[in-house]
Every structure is written in structure tokens, then in C-alpha cells.
Design brief:
The complex is a heterodimer of chains A (about 400) and B (about 110). With about 400 residues, chain A is mainly alpha-helical. Chain A has 19 helices and no strands. Chain B has a single domain, classed as Dimeric alpha+beta barrel (Alpha-Beta Plaits), CATH 3.30.70. The chains are: A mainly alpha (about 400), B alpha+beta (about 110).
Chain lengths: ~400, ~110
Amino acid sequence: MVDVAQAVAAAGRDSYGRIVATLIRVTGDWTLAEDCAQEALAAALERWPGDGIPGNPGGWLLTVARNRAIDVLRRAAVENRKLQEVAMLGEPAPEPAGEIEDDRLRLIFTCCHPALAPEARVALTLRTIAGVPTADIARAFLVGEPAMARRIGRAKAKIADARIPYRVPEGPALAERLPGVLAVLYLLFTRGYDADGEPAFADEAIRLARLLAELMPGEPEAASLLALFLLQHSRRHARRDAAGDLVTLAKQDRSRWDRAAIAEGLEILLGTPVAGPYALQARIAACHATARTPAETDWRSIAGWYDELARIQPTPVIELNRAVAHGYAYGAAAGLELLKAIEGLDNYPAAVAVEADLTARAGDTGRAVALFRRAAELAPSEVERRALLARAADLGAAG
Amino acid sequence: MKYMMFVCDDTEPETDESLVPDIHTWVAENDAAGRRITGNVLAAPSAATTVRVRGGQVLLTDGPFAETKEVIVGFDILECADLDEAIAVVAKHPMAHQGRIELRPYAEL
């Protein structure tokens, strides 16, 4: 029984978005498409224990979902043409691959349309393409399930009412829209937390980035985003100690990093040109992932990648990380000098912590202790506050 | 699908003066393509009259129904295949650069 449940879950992961995407294209009805995909999964849970797991689980689910859609449409007495189109789906061959892959791409671009609110894009993508239950999305985003259901419902209504097209943009429009889609996947990777404090939807984000990279082989930033996810996610088992506290990169047990994920990320980067911010971030992540010890980290390369990243995305946070990298690559004084030049970081907790660290390494212990205490006051979480106070105490004891 | 453009001025100073398109070119192009059904510049809100009927009585108020800093200065009705086409048309309107434009679809009844 457990095997069947796992098989259904696996088939759902592989096929849910595909089924929904295809049924939306043919019926134009998002709710019908999702309901039918859900019902196909429920039918699988009911029938596979007795009938056995079918040879092509995805094809089985698509057939059941399609038949369900035909039933509903027939009862609603829609015009015959639409009915015939639905009936043709998945017959006789289970999957005319090209069409269906295009459908998933259409669905991604529609869910990530810039005319939808950013939060709604993330929720709709999780719900519709990844098939994550509304209750799980609501929990991860710290809102009630009815509120999340309304948010998703409003987004679907806007798609219909304003006629947001179900289409992958072409030409210059694609170049304009793709960064927005990648940004939604990035948000999906980082936003929302599980009970253990880890990102709630990292696996879904990786699956979607993999899909996007496969479907858009000519877009290096899509592949770079996948590599970035894999490299960051490789550290998930080392990021927290037994008490659940965050462990900094330098103190992580590197034997617990996921070597397979790192290898895959590096392999992707080998074949992908540096074409944008995700390529640069992925290369920075790769420098960390390939260092066997913190001391072996290639900080000069990291500093170089940050120089490029700061040129195309001159945000205070990237400038701050650039200062950190230069501090390790070329000495604390170099880092402090870059830090002084950054505008817009006043009282930003991480900036004070960075200044404290650089000041300590520059040898000004008294000032560093004061800065660590100040950073602790500003720290957004108790865990960080404790860590910063511990640094202040260590320095105070040493000095 | 028909969309209404509410063309609004913008009291915030952050306008994009880089390549402000010409309104006459915009009107001519979209009229010729059959995308612009109608539209016009509107007189100032000081010329507006707000009308309500309550209890069988016609009640008139001088001025617009909403006192806001941003003022609707004109409107256009577009016929477009979908929102992406409408956005592309609106992005070429000078007031998208110097003000703001609300794009609202007709309700499907």
C-alpha cells in the first residue's frame, strides 16, 4: 500500500502540471483542469492497489483526467467541437511530446505574468504547476488557507477577466518576460519556510527550473538558475545544528554537502555561458561548493564575480557581499573601504555585522566588540542575536 | 476583447522623459490598425458634475466623485486580442511615460 501511495505521489509530481497545462489549453477552464487532475490522482489511489500500477502512470492519469473533463463538459453541454478536441487528447499515443511540453511552458509564463501580483504569481505557480495543496502554501506563507485560496482565486479570475494570454511570448517580448519568470522561481525557492526553518518549496523550485531549462535550451539564464538552486540546495543538510540553529558557511560540516547536486550544478555551468545575474550567482556558489575547507575558498574569483554582479545589479545587498568577498580576497582594509562607499545600508543589520567582522580582522578589537553588540541589537532573530553576542564575548575575552 | 484606458496624470515627479512618443502618431497608428474604437481628452475635473438619484430626486454635485490628486485626463477604448497586445499599445501612449494609465477590460456578460 505504501508503494502504491508513493507511486501515485511520484506520478503526480511528474504529470500533474502536464495534465493541468494541457486541459487548460483545451478547455480554457483552470478550475476544471485542476479538479480533473486532482480526481485522477484520487482515482489512482483507489484503483492502483487492486489493479496494479500501470506501465505508463502519467498516461493513465492523463486519460482519467481527460475522461473526467469530457464528462463535466458533456453535462455542461458545451459545443461539440471543444468536446472532440478534449477526446482526442492522449489518443492513441499517450503523449504527443512537443505539444504537451509547450503547454507546460505556456502555463508557467501565464502563472508568472507581470500583470498578476508578485505573491499571487508564486502561489499560483505552486498550486497549478507543482500541484502543491493550497493548505501547504498557506502554511508556508503564514496566512490562513481561506486567505490563500482567495488570493489564488483572484489571480485565476484576473487571468480570465483581463484575458491574460495562455502563450509563451516570442521575440523581444520573451527577453522582457523571462527574467520575471526566473524571479518567480527564485522567490519560490527562497520564500516560505517549513517547520524546520528550511525553505518549503526548494524541491518544487528545482523541478520547475529543471523543466524550464529543458524546455528553453537556448536561454542560458534558465540553466544557470537551475545550477544556482542545485549548488545552494546541496548545503541543506549542513545548514543547521542539532538545536536547529543556523550554521555559517565557514563552520558547516562539508562532508554533509550533497556531492551529487554539486556535481550536477558544476556540469551545467561548464556548458552555460555567463549571460546574466543567475550565471554570476551560480559561479559564486560554485566557488564555495568546490572548496574542501573554508581556507581553500577562491575568494579572488568570488570577488571578481561580485564585481561583475554589482555592475549589472548595483543593489546595496550585492555591494555588501562584494565588500565581504574583497575583505577575504585582499584583506580586511580593502573590504572596509568598499563598505564605506555603499549607500542605503544605514542600520541594515547584516551590514553592521559585516563591518564588525572586517573591523575585528583589521585588528581594532575594541571597536569590533562595540559593533558586534550594535549588530546584535539590530538582529532580526534571536538565533542571530545570540551568535553576534557570542562573537562580541569571544573578542572581548581575547582582547 | 475590449479594454478601456483611463488616462491619468501623475503628481509624482518620476516621469520617463527619455523617449516620449507623439500622441498624434499613437492615435493614427491605432486607428489605422482598427485597435482604437474611440477616445478623447476630457475637460478639467472642475467642469465635472456628479449625478445621483436618491428617493426619486436628482441630486447634483459640482466636481468629480472622487477628489484625488491624480486626475483622469482622457480615455480610449481598445479592441485587442488579449492583455499583452493591450499592454503593448498602452506602453506607446505618451501618458504612460508622463502619467499613468489604468487598463480595464470590459466585463463579459
